[in-house]
Amino acid sequence: MWRALAAAVVVAAVRPAVATDPYAFFDWDVGYVTAAPLGVKQQASRRRQFSSVIGINGKFPGPAVNISTNWNVVVNVLNDLDEPLLITWNGIQHRKNCWQDGVLGTNCPIPSGWNWTYEFQVKDQIGSFFYFPSTGLQRAAGGYGGVVVNNRDVIAVPFGRPDGDITIFIGDWYNKNHTDLRKMLDNGKDLGMPDGVLINGKGPYRYNDSLVPAGIEYETINVDPGKTYRIRVHNVGTSTSLNFRIQGHNLLLVETEGSYTTQQNYTNLDVHVGQSYSFLITMDQNSSSDYYVVASARMVNDSLWRRVTGVAVLHYSNSGGKASGPLPDPPQDQFDKTFSMNQARSVRWNLSAGAARPNPQGSFRYSSINVTQAYLLRNTAPVVINGRRRATLNGLSFTPPETPLRLADAYGVRGVYSLDFPERPIHGAPKMARSIINGTYRGFMELIFQNNDTRMQSYHMDGYAFFVVGMDYGEWTEDSRGTYNKGDGVARSTVQVMRSSRDHRKSHRKQCLQT
């Protein structure tokens, strides 16, 4: 568990201004820190003799951004890495302001030794989000932290005030540094099985002497008996879907990525790469001992992946002893897509909550808005193009131009990209392209993701949100629209698409979202 850091680490101030919303200021120094979460330092590169773990203001994970609806956020980032850097704000919406979303295509990377100031407003937003470095596979080295957007005081929260607020980061971890992992991908190789799973940047509690070596620092989450906590869980990993559970405790889901959900209990929940959930958890169990907090890999061979399990400890203030014995059981069948699919379908929007909504058009009845564009986006297994391992959509693999798209628009630079991304998969050999979707300002777009790969995929819409209206197996057809959820599909920014399955999303398109 991490908390907001002191002012000496994060400079945060609120500046009430006449006729404007408050401002919060942060100064970040992004550089390498000494850390060995799994007992082994990430292997240093030729240019870097020491640890390759990325921290912010000397901390890993980085500082919290704790703000409220409509606040303006100003983050000055100094890049002390030895390579370019971009910070993206996963799930934060950048309405009419894509210049701040921190991804290639809209921003130039911050050169080593330089600084850049991000400034954006969390207009009409609430919820649980996180930030991370978006280029060069730096995310595999850390550099991430949490973003909490609180309701304004005049807007009621659809549940009682929790006794505490806790953030938990779960994610796969490789002992190889991110530059070596990047070279592996460029050479057409798969990253392979991670070396472990971290919880809040720390390795597993030694629940099994043969699987977990001695001396690894683990996370302890301190709670008081009888109290209820809001626990925000983020999968900040690179490629591994994780099942999250707390031994003996129910997880009451209340929010995901900026949308309050219908409230229902889970004993465990699959959290896929890039996703965020928040739960209410009451400390109502016997305090004779501590309890396990577990994040274990999903859709894998359990016997081979047993060590790829993150374990922390939930510690009651009156606990009588350490956690011991076997971990709480994961879902029975690791490859049971139906279980995970039904979980995903059960996450619904709370239509009665009086909170900020992600629909700038003013209507929350998305089924009544006319769809102006529709794209069927099909991915297949990675292929080698021009000697490098590439992912494709509709047979095209995007390569970022040297001049960001919006910068090219602003200065009238021609030939940087083309507005000819195909609405359906194309025939022929996969190829490199700079084709982008030509979204219509204030239009309403339908996106269908068809996963023809052999592994799970996470799809994220940067700087915006979409409604998840359907999820099913097999090939999508026009008749599939008859199965859409036209009432309470949840609005979020990241969705899982299981292998050989499809997902239907409806999204408002803004002028700045052209990727």
From TrEMBL:
Belongs to the multicopper oxidase family. Residues 44-152, 165-319, 407-498 form the Plastocyanin-like domain. InterPro entries: Cu-oxidase-like_N, Cu-oxidase_2nd, Cu-oxidase_C, Cu-oxidase_fam, Cupredoxin. Residues 1-19 form the signal peptide. One of its GO terms (molecular function) is oxidoreductase activity. Keywords: Signal. This is Monocopper oxidase-like protein SKU5. Pfam families: Cu-oxidase, Cu-oxidase_2, Cu-oxidase_3. It comes from the Eukaryota. The lineage of its organism: Eukaryota, Viridiplantae, Streptophyta, Embryophyta, Tracheophyta. It comes from Oryza meyeriana var. granulata.
